[in-house]
Amino acid sequence: MITKEMTIGEIIRRHPQTMAVFEKYGLYCSDCQIADLEELQHGAGVHKADMEQLLAELNSVISR
After folding, report:
1. What is d(CA 59, CA 37) in angstroms, rounded to the nearest whole number?
2. What is the mean pLDDT of the chain?
């Protein structure tokens, strides 16, 4: 399960299939050096993404 406290880099490493969801929300994190330090909640806020919707979609993708 993905939580808002996890870093973006950790999520991508554990669940590479989430990249499409990140890109849908304008978070092109695979090339970003801060992804290993930035928590999902912070990244969503910076990119003005709806945190709850993003989290729901990320968890949906990994549960398939």
Report:
1. 20
2. 94
Structural domains of the chain, ranges and CATH numbers in brackets: 8-62 (1.10.3910.10)
Within 8 A by CB and 6+ apart from 59, the residues are 1, 2
* The predicted structure's pLDDT at residue 32: 80
- Rounded Cα–Cα distance for residues 24 and 19 (Å): 9
Tokens matching residue 40: 């999902």
pLDDT tier at 34 (50, 70, 90 boundaries)? confident
Whole-angstrom distance, CA of residue 50 vs CA of residue 64:
22
Chain centroid to CA 51: how far?
Answer: 10
